[in-house]
Amino acid sequence: MARSLSTPFALLCQSQRCSSQPHTRKFAVSLCVRNISPESPEFIDIPEPPQQQYPPRPRIKGVLPVPRNIFPSRAANKTSPEYLASVTREPAQSDVTLPNDARASWKRRMAHSRRTNLREGLTELYHRKQKVDRYLAVRGAQRRADRGLLLKLPQREDDRLTAPSVPAAMKKLQAGALLDPNRAHRIEVGAARVLKQQQKKAAERQAALHSLYMRARDFITTEEQLNAVIEKLFVPQPREFSGDTEGATIWNSGRPDSISSLLGHLKRNSRRAISFNKVQGRSSQARLKKIAEELTGGEMD
Length: 301
Fold this sequence. Notes:
The chain is an all-alpha fold and 301 residues long.
């Protein structure tokens, strides 16, 4: 048998027999590999329980305008016969006696329908507004009543058993603000402090007013006074510095004090008796002026 299969004729017959059958190619079906990292929660397939799939809400494009308030509180009653008669006037007698043609009758019918629609529309909208207002009032009252009942309910047993332990000091804070035992004394101290500050401000205001009154004598209020001051200060030929003599202008007020002279005035170690007594006289004069101002209650020249 093996010999017969090895002959050329047998091989040819076998090849023809195989070629007579149709060749079919088998395709392997394999799942596609998802590119999901191990960190993703979808890496492991977990069966989900079946649940009802609600249809998605349709997306409404655009923005609806805010409806206009047709019945404001300050406006008149738009459902009264007077208002309806004013906004839906009947045609005049001259308009009724138009030529009896098709277009004229159509216009009369359209005008009558507009008047009827306006009257019925205002009436129905007013009834709808009253209905909505009553509904909102009843619903608001019911919600307030329910909230009041819930606030007054005692603590549930499960809440009491599962609530953490709260010390007595914290319970006082939860009940409300703590009462201040020194409230009356604190209020008295605050009122006295405020009164003292007001008195201080009044005294400062009075002192400022008195200083303004004393300095108002030197104010320049007229053109003649301004010209006199200009002529006095801005002279054609100002004199030069001449020792300790003081002139009538700012240019003849003497040489400015040096640093050594200022230190000598401060330390009172001047070698000349005149300068030493002059410094003491100036300081004593300033002290006397300050004492006089305190006694008189105002600024002095």
